[in-house]
Amino acid sequence: MRLRQLVIATSEMDLLADSICDLFELKRTFSDPELIVFGLQNVLIPLGDTFLELVTPIKDNTSAERFLKRRGGDGGYMVIVDSVDLEKERKRLEKVKMDIVWYENRKFDDIHGQSLHLHPKQVGGAILSIDNMKPASSWLWAGKEWEKDINKSLVSHVSGVNICSPDPNNLLSNWEKALGRKRSLDKTSIDLSGSSINFVINTQSQSEHISAFQIHTAKRLEIEKRAVSRGVLINNNIHLGGVDFLLVE
């Protein structure tokens, strides 16, 4: 199991996508017409074989629209992990009484994509989706041609996500149950293959939400200079779409 896609809900999808792609020298790759079932439009941006997704509501009273109103603006919305055996994960979730609120089962040509969305109130902090692709190297949510749009000149992949809470230990317990993974030795994160989900204290409010994306790079200083020139380096952190982009080397 590994972190595969992180999602931002935004009211200005095109503007935010342009800003992210400009800063990190990335490219848009795909917009999924199937998201209309959720009242959303989206765009996918590949970082290697991991992805940033931006979603924006186009219908009233969608969950994303309510999220934006609660947040008072853009913010981290969803965490998607890629699993090896989705049926095994489904049986495990039933055993620990974690509710599945959406099951996506989509086939296109030679690709079969499946997705389990867990009940947000049982997990906390973000919507969690456990997915599976056949073949494993594919990612149907980004279409079939996303590999041509990969650019690793500045960043290589999504390597982690930080979720904050006034009680991060309790939130971490929920995610252990949801993912079927035990916390790391430092008791503050869940380690996945080549990535991690990290739980940090929120001292500002009682809110639980995604606070940061971790992006792997070998060119931290160059990116920080670009961020300064674009006015998005705030308190020594790159801030876009309501989340901090933390550069990990």
Task: Note down, in words, how this protein is organized.
This protein is an alpha/beta fold and 249 residues long. It has two domains: 146 residues, 2,3-Dihydroxybiphenyl 1,2-Dioxygenase, domain 1 (Roll); 99 residues, 2,3-Dihydroxybiphenyl 1,2-Dioxygenase, domain 1, CATH 3.10.180.10. The protein has six helices and 14 strands. A seven-stranded mixed sheet has the order 2-3-1-4-7-6-5. The relative contact order is 0.18.
Blueprint of the fold:
Layout: E1 2-9, H1 13-24, E2 40-47, E3 50-57, H2 63-71, E4 75-82, H3 86-95, E5 100-108, E6 111-118, H4 120-123, E7 127-134, E8 155-165, H5 168-179, E9 189-192, E10 195-201, E11 209-217, H6 220-229, E12 233-234, E13 237-240, E14 243-248
Parallel strand pairs: 1-3, 4-7, 8-10, 11-14
Antiparallel strand pairs: 1-4, 2-3, 5-6, 6-7, 8-11, 9-10, 12-13, 13-14
Annotation keywords:
globular; 2,3-Dihydroxybiphenyl 1,2-Dioxygenase, domain 1; 249 residues; seven-stranded mixed sheet; alpha/beta; single chain; 40% strand; 6 helices
- Report the CATH superfamily of the largest domain: 2,3-Dihydroxybiphenyl 1,2-Dioxygenase, domain 1
Give the name of the CATH architecture of the largest domain: Roll
CATH topology (fold) name of the largest domain: 2,3-Dihydroxybiphenyl 1,2-Dioxygenase, domain 1
Form type: globular
Which runs of at least 5 residues are low in confidence (pLDDT < 50)? none
- Estimate the mean pLDDT confidence: 97
Q: Name the helicity range.
A: 10-25%
Q: Approximately what portion of the residues adopt beta-strand conformation? A: 35-45%
What integer value in Å does the Rg equal? 17 Å
Total helices: the number is 6
Largest sheet: 7 strands, mixed
Query: What letter string, H or E per element, gives the SSE order?
Result: EHEEHEHEEHEEHEEEHEEE
The N- to C-terminal Cα distance equals 22 Å
Number of domains: 2
